[in-house]
Every structure is written in structure tokens, then in C-alpha cells.
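The instructor's notes for this session suggest beginning with a concrete chain rather than abstract definitions. Hand out the sequence below and ask the class to guess, before any prediction is shown, which regions might be ordered.
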Amino acid sequence: MLPLSNVISSLALVLMMSLVFSQEALSHAKGPRTSPEAGQVLEALPQKLEMEFNQEVILTRVQLVLPDGRKVALPLDGLERSSKHALSLEEAKAGKGQYQVLWKALSADGHPVKGAFDFGVE
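After discussion, reveal the predicted structure:
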């Protein structure tokens, strides 16, 4: 028979590990880190938009709001669950001004998350 102190130590270890892993599983996607970065001012519109999340997500919608207020839906064809996404901006033929990116995604735990960020072209 095991000494009581070994049993208690083992149970405490199992409990701590359960708490750590359950918190990780319950956390929603955060972020994303983006390129261009939020608030960045560029000389020209980039060819692609990059988004990196803290966990795998499925992007469900990404729109680019042009300087004149029109919204362009960015193509999501072929995107899968991933923490890194690159989207073509070739559909967005616009010049100088402020742009806003609106995004929606499903995080790994199945909860919807959304956000927005701005960048400019001068």
C-alpha cells in the first residue's frame, strides 16, 4: 500500500495539470498580430494581408473597408483551421487613404470571435 503522502502528492499533481489544460482549452482566440500592423501607414497598398492568432482559427469573413467607404469581401477560398492566414488584396484596387479590416472567425473551442484594425496608405 502506498503511503498517504504519496497519494496526496499524486492527486495534487493531477488536479494542477487538469486546471492548466482546462484553462488552455477554454481560452478564446486572441489577436491577431497583423501585417500591415494596426495604425501603420504604408506607401502603397500591400499585395496581401497577414493575420496570426494565438491558436488555430477558421476565418469566416474578412472585409476590407476602402477609403471611400465601400466594403470588399476578401476571398477565403481554401482557408482551413490555422493560426496563420494570408489573404490577397488584389481585389481591392484603391489608392491613398485609411483602410479598415473587419474579421470574424471560429476559435478552436468553437466560439465566434471578431475584430477590426486600421492602416493607411499615403
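Then share the key points. Strands lie at 33-35, 41-42, 48-65, 71-73, 82-88, 97-107, 112-121. Helices lie at 4-26.
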